[in-house]
Amino acid sequence: MNNDILAQLLQAKSDWLNEQLNSKLQQQGCSLTPAQQTVFNLAFEQVTTLSQLAQQMRVSRQAVQKTVASLVELELIQLRTCPENGAAKVLIVTARGQLMRLKYQQVRRDIEAQLLQRLGPEQVAILKQILQQQW
Question: Which residue numbers delimit the HTH marR-type domain (predicted)?
Answer without folding.
Answer: 23-124
